[in-house]
Specification:
The protein is of the alpha/beta class. It has helices at residues 7-33, 36-63, 97-104, 121-134, 144-149, 159-177, 192-202, 216-222, 227-232, 263-278, and strands at 110-114, 139-143, 182-186, 207-213, 254-257.
Length: 286
């Protein structure tokens, strides 16, 4: 959130500062001229002229974006307190997860695609979603840009905001998978800690980590959105791979090297890996 002065505050600041400045000017004028009337006249003229110049100068700089740092309000989680006493999550539903999976004839899983921007995560996810539908599996892609455009539009790209971004989407993915849906998440999720955080929320049994691996130089040559160019120019701060780190998974469930593989081949590889995990095998409980 960016905080700026109101018009009234700018005016008051202008008058208070000019009062101090005018007293200084009047005193100097008196010391130079030895005439108190001239000194007061000079001080009076100065206070009225410069207060308005100061006001318009302030308003002008509020319109200039150069050199301005945008700060985001910290996310506060109210995990305890009086309000929590009135929240009662419903886990014992009338329609169980097993019944939903039986109806869909599939087992819900979360496929978590991680990798640098430009590695091919979104394109592969969309191809896989289509492939699954053509083979009678119901899937939903949760893409980073779409999520940030809506539910997470108030978040930036600091490590703290990235963690909150992942926390929210992991909770959404958990709802989807508990409804028996194959959920394909495409998020850079740059650190191992953040991905472990998501895995803990979703549950280890439902979480499949896929490393979409492409070197930084390859991703930069693709740069369809022009993000790397802007990051190199300093127009985007904390951009993963440039001035913010990316930690590759140490032992992903699957690694797809998109530097040496086309999209269709990558989709086929991912589908072949995923299919045994989502074959209809409904749970016996809720």
């Amino acid at each position: 959130m960016t905080i700026k002065d109101t018009r009234t505050r700018s005016v008051v600041k202008g008058f208070s500062w000019r009062f101090v400045g005018t007293m200084d000017t009047t005193l100097i004028s008196y010391l130079v001229t030895g005439n108190p009337l001239k000194a007061l006249s000079i001080g009076g003229i100065e206070v009225f002229s410069k207060v308005f110049l100061y006001y318009f100068h302030e308003r002008l700089w509020l319109r200039i974006k150069w050199g301005r740092a945008v700060e985001h309000s910290p996310i506060v989680h109210h995990n305890n307190g009086v309000a929590q006493e009135h929240i009662h999550p419903v886990y014992d539903r009338l329609v169980s997860r097993a019944e939903r999976e039986q109806f869909l004839q599939q087992t819900g899983k979360v496929l978590w695609l991680t990798g640098l921007s430009g590695s091919g995560k979104t394109t592969i996810a969309q191809g896989l979603e289509r492939k699954l539908l053509e083979n009678n599996y119901f899937a939903q892609v949760l893409d980073g840009d779409n999520i940030r455009h809506g539910i997470n539009s108030n978040l930036g790209f600091s490590l703290e905001d990235r963690q909150e971004n992942i926390r929210r989407i992991a909770e959404v993915a958990k709802l989807y998978v508990n409804s028996g849906i194959v959920t394909i998440c495409t998020f850079i999720s740059p650190t191992r800690e953040i991905r472990a955080f998501a895995k803990n929320i979703i549950g280890e049994a439902d979480f499949l980590e896929v490393f979409v691996n492409a070197p930084l130089e390859v991703c930069e040559t693709r740069d369809v959105k022009g993000l790397y160019k802007k990051a190199r120019a300093g127009e985007i701060k904390e951009f993963t791979g440039i001035d913010s780190p990316y930690e590759a998974p140490l032992s992903p469930d699957l690694e797809i090297n998109t530097a040496n593989m086309g999209i269709e081949a990558a989709v086929e590889q991912l589908y072949g890996y995923l299919k045994p995990h989502i074959l209809a095998n409904p749970r016996s409980g809720g």
